[in-house]
Each structure stands twice: as C-alpha cells, then as structure tokens.
TrEMBL record:
GO terms for cellular component: membrane. The keyword Transport applies. It comes from Rubus argutus (Southern blackberry). PROSITE patterns: ABC_TM1F. This is ABC-type xenobiotic transporter. Keywords: ATP-binding, Membrane, Nucleotide-binding, Repeat, Translocase, Transmembrane, Transmembrane helix, Transport. InterPro entries: ABC1_TM_dom, ABC1_TM_sf, ABC_transporter_C-like, ABCC_6TM_D2, P-loop_NTPase.
Length: 313
C-alpha cells in the first residue's frame, strides 16, 4: 500500500497550475494506487483525476495497464527506448463512422428523390430494414470485423517472419494448410452470402408487420383480433429464425473444420519432432517451432474466420 505522503502528493497534483503532467504507471506510488488498491479504486482514480480534473491538461501516461488505453488520444508502444508502434484508439472507429455517414446520406438522398411508384412497389419493412439493421451493420459490426481481421493478419505476418528466420521448414506443412483453408473459405462464402440475403428477406416482413400492427393497434383491439396478429407475428418470427439458424450452423461448420485442420496439423508436427533422431534438430529450435507453430495454426484459422465473417456481414 502507498504511504500517506505518496497519496497526498498524488492527489495534490490535479490542483496545480501546470499545463503538462507526466504519470509513470509503473512507479510504486501510482502503481499501488491504480493496481494494488483494486480495480474499482484504480478505475475511479483514473476517471475522476485524469479524465475529470485533468481533462483540460496534457497528460503523458506511462503504464502497462491496457484497460486505460481507450481513453488515450494517441498510443505509443515503446521497446528498447524507441517507438515501435503508434496510433490512435479511435482511428478505426472514425474511419467506420465516416464510411457509414457517407452511405447513410446516399441512402437518404435516394429515398427522398425516389418516385411515388417506388413506395407503392416496395414494402415499408424493406426500407426500414435498410435504415436500421443494415445501417447498424455498417456502423458497428463491419468496423469491428475489419479491426479483428487486421489485428489477426498482423499477428500472422509477425509469426511468419519469425518462423522464416529460425525454422523455415515449417512452411512445408503451413502452405498445404493455408491452401486447404482458402478452399474451405471459397466453399463457404457463396452459401453464407445467400443465407445472409435470405435473412434480410425474411426480416423485412417482420418489421413491416410490426409497424402496421403498431399503427393499427386501436382497430385491432376494437375487433378483438389480437390473437390473429400475434399468431401471424410468431409465424413470421419462425420464418426469420430459420435462416438465422442456418447461418449460425454454416459458421460453426467452417469453425469446426478450421479447428480440426489446425489440431491435426499440430499433432502431426509434434509426432514428427518426436520421431526425429536425437541431434538432428536443435531442441531450442524445436521448442520454438512448436510454440510458434501452435499460434500459426490458430491465427491462420482466425484470419480465415474473420475474413468469412466480414464477407458474411
């Protein structure tokens, strides 16, 4: 636990007139307050002090606690006294926001300029589906999927770079595995794309029926037709749930085969390393190969899964 002097010193900092503050997260006083005192206390101190009292000041915060990174305007990753990575936590979110705004404005422009015959031929549920579900996918789901895909791809390329320097022989097994993964992806994508289209087609009647029911609720109650509309809504929900179930089943089909392929490849590599006579392979290189080989198989399956999931959105 920090001493009383350290607590008083740290708590008196926000009340000074300095324009620049340097907070070293690994120093005993700061680390004790943010870590040892508990997650809730550290989060409260960070929120009330750094994000509250010091919100108009420039704060350089050095820490290993990643839960505070989303609040940073810019993040610098240091290694051996040098900046190895830099970026903003909101970079991907801002890119997704600008893209979604452009698509939303174009959609509104097309709807407002559409002739009256378009609204006579197009159900209101289909229009609401584009403005709600599809827009939510563009706003939230696609940026998250792009971030996950980019993160897994960077990790995969890093492991490939390390393995190419210490154990290039692993690519003899890796190349057929990635070929099989690409084949699975090409086999899965057409079905997943069609299932995603069916989900949208089956969801539009649900939204349309719900909107019409809300607008005519007084008439429905007057003629005592609540049970009929409820049964119709349940049938529409069942019809919407079927393609959703098939979509989840297709994704699990792909994940199962990716995991099975990775497990078989890793097991084969272990058997091969054990069967090699002593002295042929350096034990250190063999251990490094096993460690990175496991991550290599998992990451290549994760890259394919993220790519397929992003395509499915």
């Amino acid at each position: 636990m920090p001493s009383p002097d350290e607590v008083v010193t740290l708590l008196s900092v926000p009340h000074s007139d300095s324009r620049l503050f340097l907070k070293i997260g690994n120093e005993p006083s700061t680390l004790s307050l943010l870590s040892s005192s508990g997650t809730s206390s550290g989060s409260h101190l960070f929120k009330e002090c750094l994000m509250g009292l010091l919100n108009s000041k420039t704060v350089i915060y050095v820490t290993h606690q990643v839960e505070f990174l989303p609040a940073a305007d810019i993040i610098l990753v240091m290694k051996d006294g040098r900046i190895t990575q830099s970026g903003k936590a909101l970079l991907l979110a801002m890119a997704g926001y600008k893209t979604a705004t452009i698509l939303f404005n174009k959609m509104h422009l097309c709807i407002f300029r559409a002739p009256m015959s378009f609204f006579d031929a197009t159900p209101s549920g289909r229009i609401l589906n584009r403005a709600s579900t599809d827009q939510n996918t563009v706003d939230i789901k696609i940026p998250n999927q792009v971030g996950a895909f980019a993160f897994s791809m960077i990790q995969l390329l890093g492991i490939v770079a390390v393995m190419s320097q210490v154990a290039w022989q692993v690519f003899i097994v890796f190349i057929p595995v990635i070929t099989a993964c690409v084949w699975y992806q090409q086999y899965y994508i057409p079905s997943a794309r069609e299932l995603a289209r069916l989900v949208g087609v089956c969801k539009a009647p649900v939204i349309q029926h719900f909107a019409e029911t809300i607008s005519g609720s007084t008439t429905i109650r007057s003629f005592n037709q609540e049970s009929r509309f409820r049964d119709t809504n349940m049938k529409l929900m069942d019809g919407y749930g079927r393609p959703k179930f098939y979509t989840a089943g297709a994704m699990e089909w792909l994940c199962f085969r990716m995991d099975m392929l990775s497990s078989i490849t890793f097991a084969f590599s272990l058997v091969f390393l054990i069967s090699v006579p002593e002295g042929v392979i350096n034990p250190g290189i063999a251990g490094l190969t096993v460690t990175y080989g496991l991550n290599l198989n998992i990451l290549q399956a994760w890259v394919i899964w993220n790519l397929c999931n992003m395509e499915n959105k």
